[in-house]
Amino acid sequence: MKQPLFVYGTLRDPRILKKAIGRATKGIPAVALDYQRKTIQLNKEPFPIIIKRKKSKVRGKLLFITEQELKKLDEYEEATIYKRKKVALEIGKTAWAYMPC
Hints:
This protein has 101 residues and is of the alpha+beta class. 20% of the residues lie in helices and 54% in strands.
């Protein structure tokens, strides 16, 4: 069964997604509700994050990936600063997203 995943940063790049899960997927435009996108510096590298903020929105993409691919992304993102959590989308559904620990 495919899992919905909201991406808002580097995972929107098909090359990075292919490196992480072995394939690229286009996804569809999506908006996460009550979050704000920011960029932080880690080891002098910019990393996009989303943080809770009422009445804010983050534009990104909604991907549909397998449970196995989601586990690969968990490993890929754990190497940085992210953990997977659910977010509410403007379309009335929820999806997984990677947020700062």
